[in-house]
Amino acid sequence: MPISEKLIDQLLEGCDSPEDILGEAGLLKQLTKKVAERALEAEMEAHLGYAPNDAAGNNSGNSRNGKTKKTVRSTNGDVELDIPRDRNGSFDPKLVRKGERQLNGFDERIVALYARGMTTRDIQAYLEEAYGVEVSPTFISQVTNAVMDEVKAWQHRPLAKLYPVVYLDCLVVRSRDSGVVQNKSVYLALGINTDGEKELLGLWMAQTEGAKFWLSVMNELKNRGVDDIFIACCDGLKGFPEAIEAVYPKTQVQLCIVHQIRHSLRYVNWKQRKTIAADLKLIYGAATRAEAEQALEDFANKWDAEHPTISRSWRANWERLSVFFDYPVEIRKAIYTTNAIESLNASLRKITKTRRSFPNDEAVMKVLYLALHQASKKWTMPIRNWKPAMAQFEIMYQDRI
């Protein structure tokens, strides 16, 4: 609700210095205390069904049992509140719940700052500068540690039986392990459900990847309820396609075209990159597999003298690079684009690049989970071209839907 200028003038009357407003006995702390205590009284009144000392209360036997003093944290610093209590102990105010030491909303601010990649020291400095609140790094860690219960529940939640398309990708972070900062790989599985909605299926961390690791990931998805995947889009990590096919033998593995292009251009000088990229597009942009294979042959004839490893890599991976040619245009547009996973990774990298390293693996999982939670709020629409793609899937895989 808007606050009138007249009311503000009345409140500021007699405030001659910042200390009068922000100090220990300043206006903001007094307001926080009075407003909070008024709200707590209103909660108690709603809980009991009558106001203090009214007729209903006297007739029914007063269930109030005085007040308890409790010091809580707020954005205006520590405030001592008089918390009303009832005789049977059933009153649990929403503003300051039993066992909590923060006014509702304060923890959420800390978690929101943490989700944006700020360290506990950064948050401590920000709260002190913006609100004049001194909060210890230990307290901030305690607040954010509560997120780990959510992470564990989310990571083990049941999943849908069918995801027509699943994108699997990885990003690298630096985390401290046994006193040494090391590169760690964080793997993501992004599923597209039958309604065309994006859903992150899970996060996994590993220092090294391999067939055994990926097999455990795929088995976890299976155990959480995923019975079938039509197409799995991934990069060419060793053991990755084989692990998918071992658990989901009917699934077709499409290697990521974007990763293949990046690999192809890695050792190409800047003057030639644009030309070679255009010639590669003739391969993956072809209308049919036959046209694509001819374009690959033409590329080899043109560039093998200078860059023989490019065509060699495409030919070595051709069986899994060319899977999307088996599908009609509607499905190609849905599976060929890597915008879904690439945009997600870009939003995560904005968070992780602000830190040189994380104190431990748990901190990595907390930050990425919170960042993903923020990103998923934007997933309000099905992916583009999904309805015609799903119609084609229903015809092609009617026995599996």
From TrEMBL:
User: Which Gene Ontology molecular-function terms are recorded?
Assistant: DNA binding; transposase activity
Q: Does the keyword DNA-binding apply?
A: yes
Q: Which InterPro entries match?
A: Transposase_mutator
Where is composition skewed (Low complexity) in this entry? 51-65
Which GO annotations describe the biological process of this protein?
A: DNA transposition
Which keywords does this Swiss-Prot/TrEMBL entry list? DNA recombination, DNA-binding, Transposable element, Transposition
Q: Which domain of life is it from?
A: Bacteria
Spell out the residue ranges making up region: Disordered. 51-84
Its annotated function is as follows:
Required for the transposition of the insertion element.
* The protein's name in its UniProt record: Mutator family transposase
